[in-house]
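Support request, please re-run this one:
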Amino acid sequence: MAIQVADAIAAAHRAGIVHRDLKPGNVFLVRRVGSSGPPLAKLLDFGLAKSAAPAVAGADLSRLPTTPAGRGGLTQQGTILGTFQYMAPEQLEGRDADARTDIFAFGAVLYEMMTGRKAFEGKSHASLIGAIMHAEPAPVSSVQPLAPRSVDRIVRKCLAKDPDERWQTARDLLDELKWTVEAGTPQGAAVSAVSVAAPRRGRFTSARLAWTLLAAAGLAIAALAIPAVLHLRERPVPNPEVRLELTTPATRQPLHFAISPDGRRLVFVASGEGGPRLWQRPLDTVTALPLDGTEGAEYPFWSPDSRAIGFFAAGKLKRIDIAGGPPQIVADAPNGRGGAWSPDGAILFAPTNSSGLVRVPASGGEPQPVTTLDPPRVGSHRFPQFLPDGRRFLFFAQGNPEGQGIYLGSLDGTDTTRLTPAEAAGAYIEPGALVFLQQNALVVRRFDVAGGILTGDPVTVADRVSYDAGFSLGGFSLSAVGHLAYRAGGSERRQLTWFDRTGKLVGVAGEPDANGLVTPALSPDGRRIAVARAVQGNQDMWVIDVQRGGATRFTFDPASDAYGVWSPDGTRIAFMSNRKGIYDLFLKSSSGAGAEELVLASPFTKLPSDWSLDGRFLLYQQGDPKNGWDLVALPMTGDRKPIVVVSTPFEERGGQFSPDGRWVAYQSNESGRFEIYVQPFPGPGGKWQASTAGGVHPRWRPDGKELFFLAPDAKLMAVPVRASDSTFEAGSAAALFQTRTVTGGSADLTPQYAVSRDGRFLFNVLDDTTTAAPITVVLNWNPGLNP
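Re-run finished. Output below.
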């Protein structure tokens, strides 16, 4: 069998292919058609193979180029690919792999075949790497006395640390293996049940007899294994579950990750030492690497062949090949909310937070509508996933309780079917099950795709899985080969904390909160704080009493209510709710008495951000399908006809009225990153930039003489400002202190801090006891459904 594998390697090398992932799992035993003879060893799975210049028989492939002329390699310099247990030292160091790399792996496989032990072992990745780099395995003959000493030489030369000291070609290795067999078999015959049993005439040593018996026994064992190979499809034996915990660099988007369809890689959004971007982590390595050009990325998803990643950034749908190269723009997506890549090369995605799904070629083009919204029941379609047939797909519909849930749709028609109410998007897993979140638990139910119905009771597979109620995004991902990745929730607690201007902690408000508390809004008298909390899967407005510390529920509708803004006299709270499908603007008495009043309904998502001190205007940001977020002011008297404040093809968010009501500060990414700008209200007039090195979430000092904002590293910045009737002047920004403000998901849409009249800052921060949950990866996941 070793001869057959070596012959396959030699053939691959002659064709200019380096396997790079030779291991026992990639060697299959198959029976010759119509033959009862010994099995054939087949070398499979060239998924990590790389091309090399074609070689001639017997040529030294190690001296040939590792990529065809004029083309880049599959992987960038320094990327580690393969399976640790069988990796050559040069692979672990990220150097180029050539023919001698496969020869090292073959030596490790041969050692395991002969001894039943792995050549290199360790209790951790680090100790395993150390063994491969520096240790020598015990000689084969010391573990298996029946093996001839020539095998020791073959294995030792294969496993040499320096590639120059190994067999230089697989052909030389093959010849050596054949010589070993010929030394113990009659007349150089091919190994078979007959030839192994027939001794060679002449001197017959005990060692030769032992080797003959060992070879015969090995063939007998292989023969017994043949039926299991031939009937694998009839009686599948599931592989055991293996759980890994992957710690990522610091991230503001902990739920933005996806496992590749082939189950070999994980992509996620993290910051590390720079801004948010995509990182790629092969599961068989300990290193994650950032993908250049993906700054500001959100909602990554994979191509079906696991070779490219789609994502959203800077108002665009983009794609990037993991083999290298810059990202490519596929289509406009002002407020993208997830995508899916079909086998026929189409991408289905949500271009905004208040639209149906559209379809576009992965190479780029004009998007075509696929689904249609159903207001007031549904105001947004998002986070699609294709089913295996590449035509039907799952998606999440965000809306009121009667319409919200996971739906089944098809590229062949406009009809959609709601499969189940849910809190976040779901995913499909073979051979027919739907995985989704139910009150923070990850559950699975049988899914009859043809009938479009769920059957049986849900089975809980993981508790306390993270999700974002405002975005309807669940913290889990499934591969096509049955691997599960998820990020646990429940450990993240948030605390409203008071700081002075130097960053000194001077008090807390309320208790530590593990219910996704966001957007603290301080009442004008400083005695109450309006927040949004997701309790038992339902996001509502709550009011915290600063003096007594208790939190009372303010809204009770089963829809999602969030982003409260106080009226200047403190008697009312404006908030957004999707109880009528689209996120509209509502008002309610701050005492809690009386019913909610619908203030503004329109086809677009609306999120309140400020209320002018004279009470005349409510400022909100609107999700426009063409422009993304724009700023609009709603008069609170008269006909209440909205007034556009800022509308561009870029993102304008976080609008704040100056205390005198004459200016509006906001953030915009028109320069390529978010900066703070100020312009007169209601206009016309100029526009002034108040930040120079990036900034988000502006807030005014109560006397209007200073503007605060957060720098990209989350430092609180202060800018002195001076305004006249028609001009505005901003001084140099100074850092006040480093914050630990909550970020990511819905927390990024509005400021997570407030400024009191006495100059203190109320921040929504991560509790000191909070530890970032790693991503749990379950290999060979068994959801536990009965057959």
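The longest strand covers residues 453-462. The chain has a mean pLDDT of 83.
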